[in-house]
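Project standup — Tuesday

K.O.: blocked on the structure for the chain from last sprint. Re-posting the sequence here as requested.
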Amino acid sequence: MLGATRLALFRRRRGGLELLGGAEYGQAEGPAWSGAAEALERLLGEQECGRGSLSLVLSSRFVRFALIPWSEALGAPEELEAYARFRFQEIYGALADDWLLRLSPAPAGQPRLAAAIERGLLERLRLALQDAGLRLRSVQPYLMAAFNRFAGQLPADDFLFVLAEPGRSSLLLARAGEWLCMRSLSGSADDAALLALVERECELQGLRDTARYLHAPGRTAPPPAGLQALELPCASPDTLQAMAMTVS
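H.V.: unblocked you, prediction finished:
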């Protein structure tokens, strides 16, 4: 699990999750993800993992998102990916040229959510796992893993879903069963900041009475007024443990 400032390795057992080890990291020379990659390499070097596979969940710090509108002109998967890359380039410029993209499924006529990570990050992580005798089974943004984990508890039409990680909050907004807005912002996840984020987006999108949900692992205080907490089976889990629990 690659969090914003920490990472941890878990092994899935029949009775739950076993923590194998963890590490903290800061900024290192090179890309923003270099410190995390170096910490993972050190941690794997200290472990005797044996052969196996690993599912990796990434903090929103390492992922970029975009909402991709529906277009009747796009039929083939390569056309859809090219259009999604164009949208990322509009937002992030030339930095997005070599990013790896994945799009969520959606019925015809509806927009899709797209996630992107730097190719260098994935290649570095894959090499670190290979050196440790592990196979990379999957890579998932924490935002999407958490949403999928709680999707059955959300309304089918209008809702707002907020994931509050340490130092970053991400928001998904749906109207009439379609994606309407996606935001991921760095900053505090205290009550005032969360409420300001929610109220601003609902005001911009004209959804005043939308059901609002919050997943904030590690938070011990009740959610701010108007937000309904979405909690995992164990009480107040650590953020990295919560990330691991979202993996199916």
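K.O.: great, moving the ticket to review. The helical segments are 34-46, 77-92, 119-131, 142-150, 191-205, 239-245. The first strand starts at residue 6 and ends at 13.
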